[in-house]
Amino acid sequence: MSQSATPASFPAEIRNRQGERLDFTVHQGTAGSRELVVIGHGVTGNKDRPHLVALAEGLAAAGIPALRLSFSGNGASEGDFTASTITKEVEDLGAALDALPGWNITYVGHSMGAAVGVLRASRDVRIKRLVSLAGMAHPAEFAQREFGAQQPGKDFMWDDEDCPLGETFMRDMAAIPGVADAARAITAPWLLVHGTADDVVPISDSEALVQAVGAERVSFVRIDGANHGFAEAHMPVMVATVLEWLRRVR
User: Fold this and answer.
1) What does the angle CA 154 – CA 156 – CA 159 come to, to the nearest 5 degrees?
2) pLDDT tens-digit map of 125-140
3) In what helix (H) or strand (E) does residue 69 lie, and over which residues does it extend?
4) What pLDDT, in 10s, does the model give residues 142-189?
């Protein structure tokens, strides 16, 4: 796809290296802008989660184009959900970047999608700015905490029958105890945003990354009372926080 896309244009489709089509939605910003925010979701999520839609709409209203992406096996993207892992999603994000030449990319990842962003940005200079929303720092610990008592191939993530727990997912998570080493390799400007009432990925994950990287190298914003999905009154605060930071670092 990258061969046919023209600079600073949107592709007709994005396919990963397995040939699976990745579903995405574009929000047009100011005509002629080369700034683009690519938005990735968390585990069991997709591009249409309310806080991701709100962020993309807020960006577009401010003149910044945005592209919401569903990783393979999630939402309307092709692929098997049980094959959805951090490792595969890092490659999916690379495929999206391949399809978007000419853009000045900011990547925003939520939850597990934030860990995907850290791992990708640590080795891909095409990500010029990075934003982690409720970012996961300890994938192995998260998987054991949330799904360790469940049986892969039999049970479902958070009892959602659309999200069967797979052995491939659990093995991949176990192989990634943390993303701090990758975080230290990131040279792009980086914003971490986390709610103090997040009971899925605790705010201590973001705090651990700030400590690992050094507070002088990143921006870290705590949103008091916000949960994992920045629901209700906290969603506009999250959007405004990202917009303010982008204006400052662009």
Assistant:
1) 135
2) 999 999 999 999 999 9
3) strand 66-69
4) 999 999 999 999 999 999 999 999 999 999 999 999 999 999 999 999
Residue 10 in contact with residue 26, Cβ under 8 Å? yes
pTM (2 decimals)? 0.95
Q: Which two tokens stand for residue 197?
A: 């009432």
For residues 170 and 9, what is the distance between their CA atoms, to the nearest angstrom? 37
Residues 6+ apart with CB under 8 A from 29: 35, 59, 60, 62, 63, 64, 65, 66
Directed axis angle between helix 139-147 and helix 112-121, to 10°?
160
3-state secondary structure of 244: helix
Distance CA 35, CA 105 (A): 6
Amino acid at 75: G
From 87, 61, 60, select the one nearest 182 (Cα to Cα).
Answer: 87
Please give the Cα distance from 152 to 79 (Å, whole number). Answer: 18
Tokens of 200: 């899925």
Helix (H) or strand (E) holding 109: strand 104-110
Q: What CATH architecture is 14-249?
A: 3-Layer(aba) Sandwich (3.40)
5 φ, ψ (degrees, to nearest 5): -75, 135
Find, among 104, 20, 7, 119, the residue nearest to 64 by Cα.
Answer: 104
> What are the φ and ψ backbone dihedral angles of 198, each rounded to 5 degrees?
-70, 115
List, in order, residues 6 or more apart from 207 with CB less than 8 Å away.
220
CA angle 143, 217, 202 (to 5 degrees): 25
